[in-house]
Batch of 2 targets.
Target 1
Amino acid sequence: MRPARPADVEAIAELRAVVMRPDLERLGRYDEHRVRQRLRDGFSPRHTSIITSAGTFAGSVALRPSDDGHWLEHFYLAPALQGRGLGSAVLRTLLTRTDTSGGLVRLNVLSGSPARRLYERHGFTVERQDAIDVFMLRRPGADRRGDRRDDRRGDAAGNRA
């Protein structure tokens, strides 16, 4: 991983549109412009990392500080790389860091997204949910069963944030 730069915003916005499209269409919420604009509007290079594989852009993840810990946001991984353990490796790295600082980690994922399984394997539990979003929480040191290989569709594809 490397720190994000302002110039990365369009690559991340495009990847977001690709990986979120199936879930957003299933929920009747896909809008080609809005899916990209929401990323642009909330993009913070200071809190975002670029995931690379074989030296090329593979995805992104943001870890934004909050009052009681962090928000895990914009976790997107290229579809061709999902299910190979890269998402779990990235998540393990981030959670090791947050466990050291002792704060909670929150995220939201689209309802019905296979990415929810990835987060559950890493100790996230449901805090609340509605028809569109599932809000999840992980306490420091929560049981992490994420050392198993990710299943094909549950690897960082449906993160809502």
Target 2
Amino acid sequence: MNMCEAFSQLPEVNVTLLVNRNNDFKLEPNTDIWNFYNVKSTFEIIFLPQLSRIIGKITLLKKLFTLFNLASALFKEFRNRREPFIVFSRHHKVVKLMKVIQGIAKNRAYRGYFCELHDLFTGPVYLKSYAGLIVISSALKKDLIDKGIKVPENRILVAQDGVAIHRYENFPEKDSIYSEYGLPRGKKIIAYTGRLAKGKGVDILIQAFAGLKNRKDLLLLLVGQIFDDEYREIAVAHGLENIIFTGFVPPSRVRAFQLIADILVLPSNRELPYFKYTSPIKLFEYMAAGKPIAASALDSISEIIRHKENGILFNPSDPQSLADSILYLLDHKDFSAKIAARAKADVLDYTWLKRAENIHRFIQQHINEDTKD
């Protein structure tokens, strides 16, 4: 949604987003999707038909239904488009479908298929199928090349995720968060925002906080949907009292929690299947919030966070290392303010709009090259 909004702000760019509602896309009835994601309605959204809940549980039927509806929607777009257009997707397997559809439609306005990758994948990729690849970290680009991907290096663009910085300015709602969620005032808030799921390192953060439970002036705030009861169990086992699980929070409201925090923690660990390549959106949100950051020293995160320059890096999966980092930030206020300010300045290079501009420039370059060929 953020990238669609950013692309739509570029001159002479029109965006249509195809959404598969069967793919973990869950909104309450009558929810305004634009307000939910806090984006402007500057692009078109086409929702693919949705299976009933009962039939949707049959995996094969679900896949076939989704494939059919995606193919139908794409074919309609190919048939009706007269102005030059490209297809941009995060699903590399869609390229096979694109070849079939273009083979039937033979639309001369079609300029190619660009794919954004967040992980390595199995199977070959051929230049004839892809006009270009966008990857979210330098590590992913390197491993793709080492794997022998049959796409020239100059057709692989590194573009980390980003943030909408303007959303972190003049945000009065942050004050109402205290009363709405029953947050005690006067405590130093150590916060994590995002899904509470395996590989996110939330268990490490809770264990680290357990080592600080004698500090009654601290509050651990975990903001996000809980996917595993293990986290509550860990908190109970350690006898933690100054800890709050908010449960699911709409994306448009998450930044309020980030703005009231004293320290923001990114504890991602190597249990994540894609830990080598992760480019967490929350990292850029943390930077935009202007608060000191303690983050795991994963290679992909170290591309953005430089130890003791714009954040503190701790050993992944090491609760003591994280606890020490939190204490250091608490005990060195001037240092914490300095690295937070540096991070906020650095994140100006990682806005969604700048990312869209870079990708658009990359697309235009290779479209022009292919047209000459």
